[in-house]
Amino acid sequence: MTIDNSASTASSWWSIPGKYLRREFLPVLTDLRLAIALLLIIALFSVTGTVIEQGQSPAYYQANYPEHPALFGFLTWKVIQVVGLDHVYRTWWFLALLVLFGTSLTACTFTRQLPALKTARRWKYYEEPRQFQKLALSAELEIGSLESLTPLLQNRRYKIFQEKNGILYARKGLVGRIGPIIVHIGIVTILLGGIWGAMTGFIAQEMIASGDTFQINNIIDAGPLATPVPKDWSVRVNRFWIDYTPKGGIDQFYSDMSVLNNQGQEVDHKKIFVNQPLRYHGITFYQTDWGISSVRVRLNKSPVFQLPMASLNTNGKGRIWGTWIPTKPDLSQGVSLLAKDLQGMVLIYDSQGKLVDTVRTGMSTQVNGVTLKIVDLIGSTGLQIKADPGIPIVYVGFAVLMLGTVMSYFSHSQIWALKTGDRLYVGGKTNRAQVAFEREVLEILDSLSSDSPAIPVAK
């Protein structure tokens, strides 16, 4: 008879990689030093993603991170775009760091924390006096009994296990052993939320004039699994305005916004400003910028017409917007209008660049033989729009993390007792708050031996 050993041979071949992974790779993966190093690297690149503006155009990085001189001697626009520092949180290597860190925590949970919890749940009685010598705190009493010890432990919320032959085991604070596991679960949940948000979220930017209605179009960054931008509703900027300080500085800028359905009916409404966004169907609208969209003017007795204003390059000397207004039908003559804010002050220049007049909104002036009235300046709101489906997962992870942190502060304390002859042996140990535990044990011993001194066990 021939025996086929192919199945056993294949099984042995498959077991070789598994044994190798357990013996060589798993100890490295569960090493605390690796977890700390990964955490520091993730924190470093997270700071980088906060300092370096994310999702801007190539021209922006070329202007702000030139090659000569390079920031810190090496940080240029080429480095930023090659490495992916312009979209750190969506790069493959950052997501790989998160996955590796989460895998390390998960492996540590299954190889260390869960076995430690399983060990803590098991107990064994001390049946020999010599076993108490191994404890950090123990004593030998000339008098006393387990019956008198039991209520003392119960009053301190110990769970008691007792045998009839004079041995006792008590413990409390097992939740402290569960705490580190809950902490790991919370951190892994946060990492999963971050990965899911990076894969499925998007970021958009819009500059919308006061009074205009828009849908999200200008997507500047999106994950590979990003959900489609909703088209069944739109947003109207009812009004945009700025509050100024007495010295002329900006105090706060506001946008009164309405969410409209396809029938044009308002389904949500909010006044937003910095740190007070509008949230609707998982999409958040942040107030981040402002500008001057257009100016409304009248020439002589003509109807009011609206001209767009463009942001002018001032080489870093402040923000200013301008437009050109024809004063003759054949466009042969005209004047330039400049404004630096929405306080209503407008500067008028002729074709030679000479300042003709300075007027406020609502006022009129004579230029090139016509009456020019500045009716109003129309502001525009700069919005940053984010969709991050991973945020609820991250919030749950933080809640679990805080719960686990609180649970970890509970001490896991254990006390053993043995009654043999006329002697009572008592000892215990704890994993934290050693001084408080020693004080507690001494109080128990004092209660047991109020009429007889305790005899310390020799170590």
Write the layout of secondary structure elements.
Blueprint: H1 6-29, H2 32-51, H3 58-64, H4 77-83, H5 92-121, E1 137-141, H6 146-155, E2 159-163, E3 167-172, H7 175-200, E4 202-209, E5 213-214, E6 219-222, E7 233-244, E8 250-261, E9 266-272, E10 278-280, E11 283-299, E12 305-308, E13 310-311, E14 321-326, E15 334-339, E16 345-349, E17 355-360, E18 364-367, E19 370-387, H8 391-408, E20 413-420, E21 423-430, H9 434-448, E22 454-456
Antiparallel strand pairs: 1-21, 1-22, 2-3, 3-20, 4-6, 4-19, 5-7, 7-8, 8-9, 10-11, 11-12, 11-19, 13-14, 14-15, 15-16, 16-17, 18-19, 20-21
Q: Beta-strand level of the residues, as a percent range?
A: 25-35%
Distance between the termini: 66 Å
Question: In one word, what is the shape?
Answer: elongated
Radius of gyration: 37 Å
Mind describing the biggest β-sheet? 7 strands, antiparallel
Mean pLDDT, as a whole number?
86
**What is the number of beta strands?**
22
Global structural class: alpha+beta
Low-confidence stretches: 1-7, 9-14, 451-459
Helical residue percent band: 25-40%
Question: How many discrete structural domains?
Answer: 3
Helical stretch count?
9
